[in-house]
Write a structure and sequence with these properties.
The chain has five helices and no strands. By secondary structure, it is mainly alpha-helical. Helix 2 runs antiparallel to helix 3. The protein starts with a helix and ends in a 10-residue tail after the last helix.
């Protein structure tokens, strides 16, 4: 492992970082969704803990996007040319993955913003629950479209 790490190039570094950081993002997203639905349905107050969890989830998603953006420009699987849309893998990594993840990030950002602006605790929880859940569905579906498992290493 040490020898492999010493010889790691920028693409490999960001690929491992992006793949590893995904677990933090998914964990925070799942926790935020479960807590938002439970607190919304249980008519619980919106606490400082809720606010921090939702904010850390938002920050982790945006951080993952920035890591992914660097990876996008380093990746040998992202290619622009006449065959980009004809080849499944090239189309997925060049267009589909990026587009779907941007949509998911926008949904999370909208949900967080709506939650901040909402007056009632129920509306705050509901905004997080709906928008974060929609984003999670897009993220999971997009990862599954790649043909690899949800928790496997990116190639």
């Amino acid at each position: 492992f040490s020898k492999q790490f010493d010889q790691m190039d920028a693409y490999s570094f960001f690929r491992y970082l992006h793949s590893g950081f995904r677990y933090i993002v998914l964990l925070l997203l799942l926790l935020a969704i479960i807590r938002a639905w439970a607190d919304c349905l249980g008519k619980k107050p919106y606490s400082e803990g809720n606010r921090k969890l939702n904010l850390f989830t938002l920050i982790s998603v945006h951080t993952q996007f920035l890591i992914g953006l660097v990876l996008y420009f380093l990746s040998p699987f992202v290619r622009f040319g006449s065959d980009t849309m004809k080849d499944h893998d090239t189309r997925y990594w060049t267009v589909e993955h990026l587009t779907a993840m941007i949509i998911a990030i926008v949904l999370i950002t909208i949900g967080h913003s709506k939650s901040k602006k909402a007056a009632s605790p129920e509306a705050k929880h509901k905004a997080i629950a709906i928008f974060y859940t929609a984003a999670l569905v897009i993220v999971v579906a997009t990862i599954m479209l790649s043909g690899r498992g949800l928790l496997t290493m990116t190639h």
